[in-house]
Specification:
Belongs to the MoaD family. Helices cover 25% and strands 31% of the residues. The chain is of the alpha+beta class. The chain has one domain: Ubiquitin-like (UB roll) (Roll), CATH 3.10.20.30. The strands form 2 sheets. The chain has a 5-stranded mixed β-sheet with strand order 2-1-7-4-5. The protein starts with a strand and ends in a 6-residue tail after the last strand. The model has no long low-confidence stretch (mean pLDDT 94).
Length: 77
């Protein structure tokens, strides 16, 4: 299982701060597509992704046991 940590608006949209998905060997891009399709988390497309606390590219692979953080763009004032 992959543990997915959600922040800010993504957390509000999903109604939780954490998701568990069985996606061993998926790329970051495939995970993003799954989150958009299954949970309607449209902001995922513009979000930064970190795998085990290291920023990741869309082509990077995710493995069972990884912790993936999805950090949407934020604005402040």
């Amino acid at each position: 299982m992959i543990e997915i940590l959600l922040f800010a608006q993504l957390q509000e949209d999903a109604g939780t701060d954490k998701l568990l998905i069985d996606g061993d060997g998926w790329t970051v891009k495939k995970l993003k597509n799954q989150l958009i399709t299954q949970y309607q988390l449209l902001q995922v497309e513009q979000s930064m992704v970190a795998i085990n606390e290291a920023y990741a590219l869309d082509s990077d692979e995710i493995h069972s046991g990884d912790i993936v953080a999805i950090i949407p763009p934020v604005s402040g004032g």
